[in-house]
Design goal:
This protein is mostly beta strands and 188 residues long. The protein contains 2 helices and 16 strands. The strands form 6 sheets. Strands 7-8-9-14 form a 4-stranded antiparallel beta sheet, with no helix packed on it. A hairpin with a 2-residue loop joins strand 11 and strand 12. The chain is globular, with a radius of gyration of 19 Å. The relative contact order is 0.12.
């Protein structure tokens, strides 16, 4: 038996063995299971999307489209960058929008069931840019309420859903924390 995050099979000894995965390894595509493949490809509409993922995810190909759009179960969440993003450079599951601010790149990375975002600040001068502290992505939602959590992040929940208590992600489990070391040239 297979599922998006589970395999169950019979061993040669006749026992059932289950393998559970932390993230989806398969997704249903047109009624059939396919292996997840989060490498990005350009789509016909000019966007960028993973080949096979659990959610319908698309990043901007540059220009007027939202920076990221995610659909699932008839609901959609879109986040727009304050200015028109440039066309991204693609590398496997990563779309890098170069120079979204002077000496600052934006990295969007597809995951099996969502995405991550990271600003890569490449110099001390860029780190001092006031626009970094003022950056706000503009949300748009269809079928969802978008609200700020007590920790300052955003959550999108089904319309009319009650507030729930917030749990901080456990960084030891690798949830909610992305670290990519970036070198700043000496003397800056």
């Amino acid at each position: 038996m297979r599922g998006e995050s589970r395999d169950v099979f019979v061993t040669p000894e006749g026992n059932l063995e289950a393998r559970e995965y932390l993230r989806p390894v398969r997704a249903r595509v047109k009624g059939a299971w396919q292996s997840v493949d989060i490498d990005l490809a350009r789509s016909a509409d000019g966007g960028v999307a993973p080949k096979v993922a659990k959610v319908d995810l698309a990043f901007s190909g540059g220009g007027d489209a939202p920076l990221v759009r995610m659909r699932k179960a008839g609901r959609e969440l879109a986040l727009s960058w304050p200015q028109k993003p440039p066309a991204p450079v693609l590398e496997r599951p990563r779309a890098t929008y170069r120079e979204v601010l002077p000496d600052v790149d934006l990295r969007m990375e597809a995951q099996e069931d969502g995405f991550t975002q990271l600003l890569v600040v490449k110099s001390a001068e860029a780190a001092a840019n006031e626009k970094l502290s003022e950056l706000r992505l503009k949300p748009a939602a269809d079928g969802l309420d978008v609200r700020e959590t007590s920790g300052g992040s955003l959550e999108a929940v089904g319309k009319g859903a009650p507030r729930r208590s917030q749990r901080r992600p456990d960084s030891r489990a690798g949830q909610g924390l992305t670290y990519i070391p970036t070198k700043v040239p000496a003397g800056n």
